[in-house]
Specification:
Elements: H1 2-10, H2 44-51, H3 60-70, E1 76-84, H4 89-103, E2 110-116, H5 121-130, E3 134-137, H6 155-164, E4 167-174, E5 178-180, H7 184-194, E6 196-199, H8 213-218, E7 233-240, H9 243-257, H10 260-263, H11 288-300, E8 320-322
Parallel strand pairs: 1-2, 1-4, 2-3
Antiparallel strand pairs: 4-7, 5-8, 6-7
Pfam families: DUF1647
InterPro entries: DUF1647
């Protein structure tokens, strides 16, 4: 694993590092803390060892749950995945129309998986008839109770891990707001070459502002060591089917989702709101996004930028357009 990490960090890249020079007077933005004595380890061996620790490893019960979810997922080279519920049904129809129009004609040997988080019976029937996808259900009786708070997105790492069990090449996760461009094949090739693609725009806030301290404690990390790193968005990413990616990123992410002290340490619905008058460290929590940000930053340290998706500084980028208001209430009719 360590040799793989070193090789990934020594490869050529067309991405540029984020040069953070600002002080922390504006705590929202990535900044250089003056009084932090802790840093992310610069030892690849230690970073790998930490992420392979027993507390971040799926146990037999966890694996049974993920296998249960993956049972109905068809095996294929590339698996696209998303999730929806009744209140996002119209947005999902619009997104699926985009998939059918842009992705299906261009990507060979792919499957599309949609996780049902609470569709009505009529919506489910229409979706199964028209989406050209595999609809699966989240077994709420088999997951921790906080999974019912859909806004926490604790289901997302588990869904991605379940899809990875059936993907021969890669898994692409997307929220309903993601609209692909005709450069999709180039994006998949990029993910295959680099191992992953994550959304890490320069304009994003830093990680500790939108991550509760309990999550840092679970990972054995000091929040101030992450102040100069932008948080990732988790609405779009691609992960290659390799032991390295699965074991050092996806498994810790899924394990954290199943541990309340990791992904939801004393959290409530109020922690979702990050738009508050006073900006301060740990002011809110981004759940799946917070955890993925910590894992990938811990793993790649200052070299995380290598795996950022090009054009992710704008919502109309090289590969996708993000449109959170797009709806199509009749596509599945």
């Amino acid at each position: 694993m360590t040799a793989t990490l070193i090789k990934m960090l020594q490869g050529s890249t067309d991405m540029k590092p984020h040069n953070v020079t600002a002080d922390c007077k504006n705590i929202w933005n990535p900044c250089r803390p003056e009084n932090c004595s802790k840093y992310i380890s610069q030892s690849p061996e230690k970073r790998i060892r930490d992420l392979l620790s027993p507390k971040l490893t799926l146990n037999d019960q966890d694996r049974q749950l993920i296998s249960y979810l993956s049972y109905l997922i068809p095996e294929n080279d590339v698996i696209f995945a998303t999730a929806t519920s009744s209140n996002h049904y119209d947005e999902t129809q619009s997104m699926v129309h985009s998939l059918h129009t842009v992705v299906y004609p261009r990507v060979q040997n792919m499957s599309f998986v949609l996780l049902d988080l609470g569709l009505t019976q009529e919506q489910r029937q229409k979706t199964e008839k028209s989406c050209r996808c595999q609809v699966i259900s989240l077994p709420f009786d088999k997951v921790p109770s906080y999974f019912k708070e859909l806004g926490f997105c604790t289901w997302k790492p588990v869904l991605i891990m379940a899809c990875m069990m059936k993907a021969r090449k890669s898994v692409v996760y997307q929220d309903a707001s993601i609209y692909w461009k005709d450069t999709i094949v180039d994006f998949l090739d990029r993910g295959d070459k680099l191992g992953l693609q994550i959304w890490g725009g320069v304009g994003m806030h830093n990680i500790p502002v939108t991550t509760l301290k309990g999550t840092f404690d679970f990972f054995g990390e000091e929040p101030c060591a992450y102040l100069n790193y932008t948080s990732l968005q988790a609405g779009i990413n691609v992960f290659k089917q390799t032991p390295f990616v699965v074991r050092t990123i996806l498994e810790p992410w899924a394990k954290c989702a199943l541990e309340p002290d990791c992904i939801c340490p004393g959290c409530t619905r109020n922690h979702i709101n990050c738009f508050k008058p006073k900006q301060e460290i740990h002011m809110c929590h981004r759940f799946d996004q917070s955890v993925l940000s910590i894992i990938t930053t811990k793993l790649f340290s200052y070299e995380r930028y290598r795996f950022h998706m090009p054009g992710s500084d704008a919502e109309n980028g090289r590969y996708v357009n993000i449109n959170r208001g797009q709806r199509n209430p009749t596509y599945f009719n």
